[in-house]
Amino acid sequence: MRILGLDPGSRHTGFGCIEPQGSSCRVLTQGRISCPSGESLPERLARLAEDLDELVQRWDPAIAALEKPFHGVNPRSLIVLAQARGVLLATLAARSIPVEEYAPAEVKSAVTGNGRASKDQVSRMVRMLTGVDGDSLSEDAADALAVALCFAARRKWRGATKG
Protein backbone atom coordinates (compact mmCIF):
# COMPACT_ATOMS: atom_id res chain seq x y z
CA MET A 1 0.00 0.00 0.00
CA ARG A 2 1.44 3.33 -1.04
CA ILE A 3 0.89 6.22 1.37
CA LEU A 4 1.22 9.83 0.27
CA GLY A 5 2.03 12.21 3.11
CA LEU A 6 1.38 15.92 2.57
CA ASP A 7 2.41 18.96 4.58
CA PRO A 8 0.19 21.72 3.13
CA GLY A 9 1.36 25.24 2.43
CA SER A 10 0.55 27.97 -0.08
CA ARG A 11 4.20 28.60 -1.04
CA HIS A 12 5.71 25.19 -0.26
CA THR A 13 3.83 21.91 0.13
CA GLY A 14 5.91 18.99 1.31
CA PHE A 15 5.25 15.52 -0.03
CA GLY A 16 6.51 12.04 0.63
CA CYS A 17 5.28 8.74 -0.72
CA ILE A 18 6.17 5.61 1.23
CA GLU A 19 5.50 1.91 0.95
CA PRO A 20 5.47 -0.03 4.22
CA GLN A 21 7.53 -3.23 4.07
CA GLY A 22 7.19 -5.25 7.24
CA SER A 23 8.54 -3.18 10.12
CA SER A 24 10.12 -0.55 7.85
CA CYS A 25 9.03 1.79 5.09
CA ARG A 26 10.59 2.41 1.71
CA VAL A 27 10.56 6.01 0.48
CA LEU A 28 9.45 6.13 -3.14
CA THR A 29 9.68 9.89 -3.54
CA GLN A 30 9.92 12.99 -1.41
CA GLY A 31 10.28 16.71 -1.94
CA ARG A 32 8.21 19.82 -2.08
CA ILE A 33 5.96 21.62 -4.48
CA SER A 34 7.09 25.23 -4.58
CA CYS A 35 5.21 28.11 -6.13
CA PRO A 36 7.03 31.31 -7.14
CA SER A 37 6.29 34.20 -4.82
CA GLY A 38 5.59 36.43 -7.84
CA GLU A 39 2.50 34.44 -8.76
CA SER A 40 -0.93 35.45 -7.55
CA LEU A 41 -2.70 33.23 -5.04
CA PRO A 42 -5.02 31.74 -7.71
CA GLU A 43 -2.00 30.93 -9.89
CA ARG A 44 -0.18 29.30 -6.95
CA LEU A 45 -3.26 27.22 -6.08
CA ALA A 46 -3.65 26.11 -9.72
CA ARG A 47 0.03 25.09 -9.83
CA LEU A 48 -0.40 23.20 -6.56
CA ALA A 49 -3.35 21.26 -8.00
CA GLU A 50 -1.49 20.47 -11.24
CA ASP A 51 1.68 19.32 -9.48
CA LEU A 52 -0.21 17.19 -6.97
CA ASP A 53 -2.22 15.60 -9.76
CA GLU A 54 1.02 14.70 -11.59
CA LEU A 55 2.44 13.26 -8.37
CA VAL A 56 -0.67 11.15 -7.79
CA GLN A 57 -0.68 9.90 -11.38
CA ARG A 58 2.98 8.91 -11.17
CA TRP A 59 3.00 7.18 -7.76
CA ASP A 60 -0.61 5.94 -7.51
CA PRO A 61 -1.02 6.12 -3.70
CA ALA A 62 -3.80 4.12 -2.07
CA ILE A 63 -4.31 6.78 0.60
CA ALA A 64 -3.14 10.27 1.51
CA ALA A 65 -2.34 11.56 4.98
CA LEU A 66 -2.38 15.28 5.81
CA GLU A 67 -1.44 17.23 8.87
CA LYS A 68 -4.29 19.23 10.37
CA PRO A 69 -3.62 22.97 10.55
CA PHE A 70 -1.90 24.36 13.61
CA HIS A 71 -4.13 26.90 15.38
CA GLY A 72 -1.28 29.23 16.40
CA VAL A 73 -0.95 30.58 12.86
CA ASN A 74 -2.11 34.16 12.33
CA PRO A 75 -5.61 34.52 10.82
CA ARG A 76 -4.46 35.70 7.39
CA SER A 77 -1.96 32.83 7.06
CA LEU A 78 -4.59 30.38 8.27
CA ILE A 79 -6.98 31.49 5.51
CA VAL A 80 -4.34 31.01 2.80
CA LEU A 81 -3.37 27.65 4.32
CA ALA A 82 -7.03 26.59 4.31
CA GLN A 83 -7.27 27.46 0.63
CA ALA A 84 -4.19 25.36 -0.15
CA ARG A 85 -5.59 22.47 1.90
CA GLY A 86 -8.86 22.79 -0.02
CA VAL A 87 -6.98 22.42 -3.30
CA LEU A 88 -5.16 19.34 -2.00
CA LEU A 89 -8.37 17.75 -0.70
CA ALA A 90 -10.27 18.47 -3.92
CA THR A 91 -7.47 17.09 -6.08
CA LEU A 92 -7.26 13.91 -4.01
CA ALA A 93 -11.05 13.50 -4.02
CA ALA A 94 -11.12 13.89 -7.82
CA ARG A 95 -8.77 10.88 -7.98
CA SER A 96 -10.86 8.95 -5.38
CA ILE A 97 -7.96 8.84 -2.92
CA PRO A 98 -9.12 8.57 0.70
CA VAL A 99 -7.61 11.06 3.13
CA GLU A 100 -6.67 10.68 6.80
CA GLU A 101 -5.79 13.74 8.86
CA TYR A 102 -3.65 13.95 11.97
CA ALA A 103 -3.00 16.67 14.52
CA PRO A 104 0.62 17.86 14.71
CA ALA A 105 1.05 16.39 18.21
CA GLU A 106 -0.18 12.98 17.00
CA VAL A 107 2.32 13.02 14.12
CA LYS A 108 5.17 14.00 16.46
CA SER A 109 4.17 11.31 18.94
CA ALA A 110 3.99 8.60 16.28
CA VAL A 111 7.42 9.46 14.88
CA THR A 112 9.39 10.48 17.99
CA GLY A 113 7.35 9.18 20.92
CA ASN A 114 6.89 12.77 22.13
CA GLY A 115 3.91 14.89 21.07
CA ARG A 116 5.87 18.06 21.88
CA ALA A 117 8.99 17.17 19.87
CA SER A 118 10.78 19.94 17.99
CA LYS A 119 10.90 20.12 14.19
CA ASP A 120 14.57 19.13 14.37
CA GLN A 121 13.75 16.02 16.44
CA VAL A 122 11.03 15.02 13.96
CA SER A 123 13.38 15.53 11.02
CA ARG A 124 16.13 13.44 12.64
CA MET A 125 13.71 10.59 13.39
CA VAL A 126 12.31 10.70 9.84
CA ARG A 127 15.87 10.41 8.49
CA MET A 128 16.57 7.49 10.85
CA LEU A 129 13.32 5.68 10.05
CA THR A 130 13.54 6.13 6.29
CA GLY A 131 17.27 6.27 5.57
CA VAL A 132 16.82 9.46 3.54
CA ASP A 133 19.96 11.60 3.45
CA GLY A 134 19.55 14.80 5.44
CA ASP A 135 20.98 16.95 2.64
CA SER A 136 18.23 15.87 0.25
CA LEU A 137 15.42 16.28 2.77
CA SER A 138 13.71 19.67 3.05
CA GLU A 139 11.82 20.59 6.21
CA ASP A 140 8.55 20.39 4.26
CA ALA A 141 9.36 16.91 2.91
CA ALA A 142 10.40 15.70 6.38
CA ASP A 143 7.06 16.86 7.77
CA ALA A 144 5.20 15.14 4.93
CA LEU A 145 7.08 11.89 5.47
CA ALA A 146 6.34 12.14 9.19
CA VAL A 147 2.61 12.32 8.41
CA ALA A 148 2.87 9.28 6.12
CA LEU A 149 4.82 7.39 8.79
CA CYS A 150 2.16 8.36 11.34
CA PHE A 151 -0.52 6.79 9.15
CA ALA A 152 1.57 3.64 8.70
CA ALA A 153 2.17 3.35 12.46
CA ARG A 154 -1.48 3.98 13.34
CA ARG A 155 -2.64 1.47 10.70
CA LYS A 156 -0.29 -1.17 12.08
CA TRP A 157 -1.44 -0.44 15.63
CA ARG A 158 -5.14 -0.61 14.66
CA GLY A 159 -4.50 -3.93 12.90
CA ALA A 160 -2.74 -5.34 15.97
CA THR A 161 -5.62 -4.43 18.29
CA LYS A 162 -8.44 -5.89 16.17
CA GLY A 163 -9.93 -9.21 17.11
What does this 3D model show about the protein?
The protein is globular. The chain has helices spanning 41-59, 75-94, 104-112, 119-130, 139-161; strands at 3-7, 12-21, 24-34, 63-67, 99-102. The chain is of the alpha/beta class. α1 (41-59) packs parallel to α2, α3 packs across α5 and α4 (119-130) packs across α5 (139-161). It is 51% helix and 21% strand. A 5-stranded mixed beta sheet has the order 3-2-1-4-5.
Q: Please state roughly what percent of the residues sit in beta strands, choosing from under 5%, 5-15%, 15-25%, 25-35%, 35-45% or over 45%.
A: 15-25%
Q: How many helical stretches?
A: 5
Mean pLDDT figure:
91
Q: Looking across the biggest beta sheet, what order are the strands in?
A: 3-2-1-4-5
Number of strands: 5
C-alpha geometry: globular
**Radius of gyration (Å):** 15 Å
Based on secondary structure, the structural category is alpha/beta
Contiguous uncertain segments of 5+ residues: 159-163
Distance between the termini: 22 Å
Largest sheet: number of strands, sense, barrel closure: 5 strands, mixed
